[in-house]
Automatic annotation (TrEMBL):
GO MF assignments: zinc ion binding
UniProt family annotation: Belongs to the ZPR1 family.
Organism for this UniProt entry: Haemonchus placei (Barber's pole worm)
All residue ranges annotated as the Zinc finger ZPR1-type domain in the record: 1-145
Record's keyword terms, sorted: Metal-binding, Zinc, Zinc-finger
Protein name from the UniProt record: Zpr1 domain-containing protein
Length: 242
């Protein structure tokens, strides 16, 4: 089933249920092409609304919770649609299985898991604030903004150039490639907005070689700049006339 998620992209939802044993499996695949750059989303979880945020990850995504020293590597699970809370709940459910038996066979490991589950529950109840990092080389990951009309104050989205291993993982580079083309350091969108680009060109008036400088800017600030420039020119023209 091809589904469009608001403020995100199109995904393909697949569902399977065995009528004999009751086994169920749900997964998603991106309906979009691999993006030009990989993406990393960092969410600071502080309120209940953060736990309920919808999360979309591909099978190539890595999830990390530094406060728990928890890392869910890529390719360990298929792509899925879940919630921020659901990520930790799934981890807790998986670790709780066979814990009684583990206490009998390996008490030391069971004690470490019990201690980890205590901290995990504190994160779920927000007794401890925590951070979720979603790193996806396909660029097709997503964490919902509860108020899409405004900038998300607790979520940072960055884009980066893929390393060679990630390109091989996605089939964008041959396995026998050893050297990676040199790319510029990955930047966030804010870094890109502050960058000034330089282009060689010729003066349209006299043909002399010169340089064009380009920089993204907000329309509002550009409007103020034009007003200030017009004011300066009018003052200069007045002084010249007098």
């Amino acid at each position: 089933l091809c589904t469009s998620i608001p403020y995100y992209k199109t995904v393909i939802i697949m569902s399977f249920e065995c009528p004999h044993c009751g086994f169920r499996n749900n997964e998603i695949q991106s309906g979009e092409a691999v993006q030009e750059h990989g993406s990393e989303i960092v969410l600071r979880v502080q309120e209940q609304v953060d736990l309920r945020r919808q999360l979309v990850r591909s099978e190539y995504a890595t999830i990390e919770v530094p406060e728990l020293e928890l890392v869910i590597p890529a390719k360990t699970r298929p792509g899925e649609i879940t919630t921020v809370e659901g990520v930790l709940e799934r981890v807790g459910t998986g670790l709780s299985q066979e814990q009684d038996r583990r206490r009998e066979l390996d008490p030391e490991s069971a004690a470490k898991i019990d201690n980890f589950l205590v901290h995990l529950r504190k994160c779920l109840t927000l007794s401890e604030k925590w951070t979720l990092k979603l790193h996806d080389p396909t660029g097709n990951c997503f964490i919902q903004n509860p108020d899409p009309r405004h900038v998300d104050p607790r979520c940072i989205v960055s884009h980066y150039h893929r390393i060679l291993e990630e390109r091989k993982l996605l089939g964008l580079a041959d396995d026998d490639v050893e050297e990676q083309e040199r790319t510029s350091e990955w930047k966030s969108f804010d870094d890109a907005k502050r960058e000034v680009l330089h282009f060689p060109t010729e003066c349209p008036n006299c043909g002399s070689p010169c340089e064009v400088l380009m920089k993204p800017t907000g329309i509002f600030f550009l409007f103020l700049l034009l007003i200030q420039l017009a004011h300066i020119l009018s003052v200069m023209n007045g002084e010249i006339s007098s």
